[in-house]
TrEMBL record:
The keyword Disulfide bond applies. InterPro entries: Thioredoxin, Thioredoxin-like_sf, Thioredoxin_CS, Thioredoxin_domain. This is Thioredoxin. Pfam families: Thioredoxin. PROSITE patterns: THIOREDOXIN_1 (PS00194), THIOREDOXIN_2 (PS51352). Belongs to the thioredoxin family.
Length: 110
């Protein structure tokens, strides 16, 4: 799993408790160790976590070692970012992006 400061890790077993039952918005990155775009996006998520950590929780889930959750949410490409609030998906983004672009895309939902 790609390790990034400020970004937690969830699994199929912990997804419900840590994401769906969370009190605030949670941004989930579906990732895999072999994914170059995921490695490119990891520091961007770390920067966003540093900026928005008081308003947004950011976690990642490895799609290879936790296959159930990506299937449940129709993840077909990596990286996929899904923003959850109140136990449901409110926004999905596919592919790597800059910090600025990611902040713009999240502004209306956090």
């Amino acid at each position: 799993m790609i390790t990034t400061a400020g970004v937690g890790e969830v699994t199929d077993a912990t997804f419900t408790d840590e994401v769906l039952a969370a009190g605030g918005p949670v941004l989930v990155m579906f990732t895999a160790d072999w994914c170059p775009s995921c490695r490119q996006l990891a520091p961007v998520l770390g920067a966003v976590a540093g900026e928005l950590g008081d308003r947004l929780t950011i976690v990642q889930i490895d799609a290879d070692t936790n296959p159930r959750t990506p299937v449940d949410y129709g993840v077909l490409a990596l990286p996929t970012l899904a923003l959850f609030r109140g136990g449901r998906t409110v926004k999905t983004l596919v592919g790597a992006r800059s910090r600025r672009k990611l902040l713009q895309e999240l502004a209306d939902v956090i």
